[in-house]
Amino acid sequence: MSIFELFIDRINSPQINLTGCCFQLVLSMLLGAIVGFERRRRGQTAGVRTFSLIAMGSTLAMILSIYVPQRYEGMLDGDPTRIAAQVISGIGFLGAGAIIQMKGSVRGLTTAAGIWMVSALGMAIGTGMYIIGVLATLLILFILVLLERIEHRVSLRSESRIIRIRTGVILKDISKYREVLHNYGVQLSNFFVEYDFEQQETRLNLVVVVRENVDYVHLFNSFETLYPTRTITLANQINI
């Protein structure tokens, strides 16, 4: 048997051995780093090192899950799924740490989902499912890179925003604002209004659903021509 054949036999062996463990740890580190590089390129806090460590940690946990029953057969009631189950539940803490909430806007959901997926990828490598692990990495990159480009191209992304308008008149009707929003393809889902009769001022909060390619500059200029306008701002929270 050649060295290469011996190596393939070792890494595919159901029994825990040094060669197989080293290969699994290195492979999971590389696959995790690939996903982490893509997240870091997008400016996310969790990057190459974080994803590599998560993948390696999950692989090591899976190796331990398999090793304990094999090593102490007949001495302990080992359950190969016990440690793996704790990895799945425990990884939620890292995922929660990747999610950031800023004034009503939530960021990091995709990174949190990636962390959870990479932990499962590491466990797949730890059980010897190398082809599945590589395929999962390719699918993760497809979702993170190619699907995002498709979303941008067909303008699938929509987000909820608040347009705050202060006018120098008491508004009794917002139909003109509705018409402008319709012309720009912006959906009005709700609105809130406050009157200041002493200052003859109306504070209007338009809750809208917009696509990411909307032209706010021209939209706000169109608003300004409707009534005497003091301020127009874009926000994530209602301010009444």
Tell me what the structure shows:
The chain is α+β, with helices and mostly antiparallel strands and 240 residues long. The strands form two sheets. The chain has a four-stranded antiparallel β-sheet. A hairpin with a 4-residue loop joins strand 4 and strand 5. It is elongated. The termini are far apart.
Q: Keyphrases for this structure?
A:
alpha+beta; 8 helices; 240 residues; 6 strands; 57% helix; elongated
Secondary-structure map with pairings?
Elements lengths: L2 H9 L6 H24 L6 H24 L8 H19 L1 E3 L2 E3 L1 H18 L3 H25 L3 E10 L7 H9 L3 E10 L4 E11 L4 H9 L4 E7 L5
Antiparallel strand pairs: 1-2, 3-5, 3-6, 4-5
Order of helices and strands: HHHHEEHHEHEEHE
Structural class: alpha+beta
What is the topology, as strand order, of the major beta sheet?
4-5-3-6
**Strand share of the residues?**
15-25%
Q: Could you estimate the helical fraction of the residues in percent?
A: 55-70%
Unreliable runs, pLDDT <50, ≥5 residues? none
What general form does the structure show? elongated
**Spatial separation of the terminal alpha carbons:** 78 Å
Biggest sheet layout: 4 strands, antiparallel
| Rg from alpha-carbon coordinates | 27 Å
Number of helices: 8
Average pLDDT, to the nearest integer? 80
Number of strands: 6
